[in-house]
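Quick one: structure tokens for this chain, please?
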Amino acid sequence: MLQFILRRIAISAVILVLGSALMYFATINSGDPLQDLRETRAENREQLIEARIRNMNLDMPWWQRYLTWLTGAGKCLVLQCDLGTTRDGANVNSLLLGAAGASLRLVALSVALAIIIGITLGVLSAIRQYSGFDYSITFLAFLFFSLPVFWAAVLLKDFGAIRFNNWMADPQLTTVAMGVIAIVFGLLIASVLGGDIRRQALTFLVTAGVVFGAVFWFDRIGWWRQPALGLPLIIVGGLAALAFFLVLTVGLQHRRILYAGLGTLAVGVVSYFLVQPLIQDPSWGLVLLLALVAAVVGAAIGWFFGGFEKKTSMVVNIGTALAFGFLVFMDQLLRNWAGFLDVAPQGRPIGTIGDARIPSERLEGNFWIEIYNWGVQLILPTIVLTLISIAGYSRYTRASMLETINQDYIRTARSKGLSDRVVYTKHALRNALIPITTIVAFDFAALLGGAVITETIFGWKGLGAIFRDGLNTVDPGPVMAYYLVAGGAAVLMNMLADIAYAFLDPRIRR
């Protein structure tokens, strides 16, 4: 396995070098970097031209300039990058650090959300093949996959920011809007749970009624400006998480692990009151420490009450404890939404142009409001990138899952009397994920390229901005910095994909 990875690294390095040479040559021949100075009427025109020639080494042949850049980029292997300067003398290293941080925040979050949501939808579509849910997901996947990025981004700015900010000034829903929300949720839950027509109709009516009542109540109490989950909803969410992990592992009929999970939730309810003073204004270190404590407590309860399936019991209880802790975290975050609205410029929380965060001196050091200040600027561009990736993940997962469940070893597992839950989760899903790892690796690098358009529309100062500016000014420094990050990300993600192959299929290790 190590020899295989080393060979892949060597091949990838050669590809990166050849690609960088092609990119450099294409960039410097895309225009005249001195055109703006040749057309100027400034008195020091000749001095400005000479200064730019020195900054960009235009008095050297192109291959020598490229080797100079390659030598500086090669120092990145020892964490001493020297990517040169822009045509105006700005340090490219500094530009890259700021831009890469902004872009990687967008891309990493988008990829994580797309993987979780897309694979889940793909698996459910395969299990519910040719159902209403499958047809709906197929239609939406093709719709999102074919949407032009610039068009979707503009629509999202209009509805997700401008109109949402206007609505937040006096948030109220009409009865028709409540009915539409209830119908959508009812159809979604009914299609996911499946069953005959009678069962789906009953599921739809119950879900739609509950959702309509909840939305109506939220609207009456002004929940949209002062939201909170509250302990009852946290308990309901914890029970849903416990049921989810049980269904994925041993099923709801395993009483011992079920009781252990209920015990974990009981400890969580007690802890809810104990940690309230600590989480009024915590730090990330404290939040991570509390999450670690929740995982340890869940593992301990699963170990002591798991019986002969201690390992499975620990997994279920750790997942339940972390889910309960996440709901407590979200409850506290929602309670501070009103505080963020008070400090948001003109009461408009969602920004539409760039990373327009509120100055820290206006936040009074509140941990939760700082999260909003950091996160709301990511919402719109992240949604755009996520929707595009979800479409691909859901279709690839569905196809891979359908191919896997028709294999002979799946039929053998069913002939042994194993339940559909065991067949799907322990046998089919793990093997179906093997080709998806390749898609993840390429999608991460592709999103860095797609982010150029998204960042332009939202005014986000990331890698797309320096790439675009470099092309417009015929300056290879910023363009090659973008290539270095995008190409390096592609190589790194492919290496991680190879390691994931070995984890998902032990035969690959040999």
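The chain has a mean pLDDT of 85.
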